[in-house]
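Researcher: We plan to redesign the surface later, but first we want a full-length starting point. Tokens attached.
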């Protein structure tokens, strides 16, 4: 899967915070050594997969080494990310997110800034063509032929640890999705929970262990792509 194993992988730990526990979590966050990072914004992604959903099923089956490919862009929380998708000047980062057991990294496959305003169908086609062309230049991926599958959107808040910017926390809410074909009306999937992610490197593990002794939400395996896909396709998730 990978062309080379990265020398420094980031750890990611995910928690689901259900609404009944929201007050306790935010009270803990106020007392914690995290401070606000970037201002909140919409994270929006168009996910791609093989025709037989190879990336999705490698996740569902729990394969240690797996990947997913997405085109990511950002919008202000006051904007509709579906409307900004086709805008002139919109920047997209094409990412391959690689997972190695409980650690991960991101490979930037391409960055695209469009100089015209396009329909959603045209923009999807342009991005897909760029991705497939880029994959053909990579030895590990040259045989892949991928297709667009679905859009995923969520509002993300950012926090950084006061001792190190390498220790970050994000809180994702209002996770919604829509297929990339047919009706493009987003479906809300996180009706009663938010997703918290702790991101850090191995050398920060002791800090994280000490930090989380004061708040112990249940660690979960959670993929926004798979959770959203399961709303449209019968998959065991």
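Model: Full-length starting sequence:
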């Amino acid at each position: 899967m990978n062309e080379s194993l990265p020398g420094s992988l980031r750890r990611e730990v995910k928690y689901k915070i259900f609404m009944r526990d929201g007050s306790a979590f935010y009270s803990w966050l106020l007392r914690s050594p995290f401070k606000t990072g970037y201002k909140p914004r919409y994270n929006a992604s168009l996910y791609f997969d093989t025709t037989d959903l190879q990336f999705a099923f490698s996740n569902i089956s729990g394969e240690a080494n797996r990947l997913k490919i997405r085109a990511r862009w950002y919008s202000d929380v006051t904007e509709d990310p579906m409307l900004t998708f086709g805008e002139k000047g919109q920047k997209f980062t094409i990412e391959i997110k690689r997972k190695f057991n409980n650690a991960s990294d991101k490979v930037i496959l391409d960055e695209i800034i469009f100089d015209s305003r396009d329909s959603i169908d045209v923009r999807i086609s342009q991005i897909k063509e760029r991705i497939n062309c880029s994959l053909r230049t990579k030895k590990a991926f040259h045989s892949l032929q991928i297709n667009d599958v679905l859009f995923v959107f969520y509002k993300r808040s950012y926090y950084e640890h006061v001792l190190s910017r390498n220790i970050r926390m994000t809180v994702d809410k209002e996770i919604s999705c829509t297929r990339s074909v047919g009706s493009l009306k987003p479906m809300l999937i996180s009706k009663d929970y938010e997703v918290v992610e702790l991101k850090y490197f191995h050398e920060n593990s002791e800090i994280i262990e000490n930090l989380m002794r004061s708040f112990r939400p249940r660690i979960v395996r959670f993929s926004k792509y798979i959770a959203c896909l399961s709303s449209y396709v019968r998959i065991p998730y």
